[in-house]
């Protein structure tokens, strides 16, 4: 965490436990990865949130569990405390299926789908949900990308839903608006394929909260998020984080993966 502390990132909310944290073994092969769960942290509890966060309401809250550590009740308590906040959700940690050996697989588990569906309905209009293509297929029970995005209309809310598709780019939808298709940007090299979706969501949320939130602006933000994500794979870990000036230069150059 020292790398983040040195950048003046507030780490006061990080809780250190004497029990095992959530840890995975990652095995990459041909642009895909296999995860094996080695240990899992306890579920998050609302009472662990420091008072200084409770007394200074955030504009946006990101819910990104690794292994189902976030419950509906936890989200409900946060929403009651921060009713005006936007909520970013990374879908993967809500729907991962883990067998007795710890192997993580994408199998539709109805209890997990029911839980995230309740959370989507609970957060309603202030939700920004991001998932990979395979995760969104599991959630929607659809195969075609356009059908997947259309499926979210069942929630009858003003939430934003994002599907990232690797080299195929990403799609962004909101009920009543035109479907946005964002291309992927071509990286100079590929060294580490861990985390581009995380960067995409982080940049998208940051830019959104500092914008007028118009649909035209959302499209512009999608390009920025896609370009930022393309830098991450060029280096190992957080060394792939890049400045906004370089990200915007890549946006302007329009060097897409076709």
TrEMBL record:
Record's keyword annotation contains Heme: no
Molecular-function annotations in GO: kinase activity
Gene3D superfamilies: 3.40.1190.20
Residues covered by the Carbohydrate kinase PfkB domain: 96-240
Keywords tagged on the record: Kinase, Transferase
InterPro entries: PfkB_dom, Ribokinase-like
The name this protein goes by in its record: Carbohydrate kinase PfkB domain-containing protein
């Amino acid at each position: 965490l020292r790398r983040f502390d040195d950048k003046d990132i507030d780490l006061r909310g990080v809780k250190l436990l004497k029990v095992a944290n959530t840890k995975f073994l990652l095995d990459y092969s041909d642009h895909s990865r296999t995860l094996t769960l080695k240990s899992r942290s306890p579920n998050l509890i609302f009472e662990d949130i420091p008072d200084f966060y409770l007394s200074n309401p955030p504009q946006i809250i990101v819910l990104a569990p690794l292994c189902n550590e976030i419950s509906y009740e936890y989200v409900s308590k946060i929403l009651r405390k921060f009713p005006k906040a936007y909520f970013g959700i990374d879908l993967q940690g809500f729907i991962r299926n883990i067998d007795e050996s710890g192997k993580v697989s994408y199998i539709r588990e109805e209890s997990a789908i029911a839980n995230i569906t309740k959370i989507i309905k609970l957060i309603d209009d202030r939700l920004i949900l991001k998932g990979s293509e395979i995760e969104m297929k599991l959630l929607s029970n659809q195969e075609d990308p356009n059908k997947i995005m259309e499926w979210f209309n069942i929630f009858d809310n003003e939430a934003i839903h994002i599907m990232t598709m690797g080299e195929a780019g990403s799609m962004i939808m909101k009920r009543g608006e035109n479907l946005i298709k964002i291309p992927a940007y071509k990286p100079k090299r590929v060294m580490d394929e861990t985390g581009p979706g995380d960067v995409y969501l982080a940049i998208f949320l940051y830019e959104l909260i500092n914008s007028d939130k118009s649909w035209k602006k959302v499209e512009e933000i999608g390009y920025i998020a896609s370009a930022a994500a393309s830098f991450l794979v060029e280096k190992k870990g957080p060394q792939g984080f890049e400045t906004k000036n370089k990200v915007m230069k890549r946006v302007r150059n329009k060097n897409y993966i076709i």
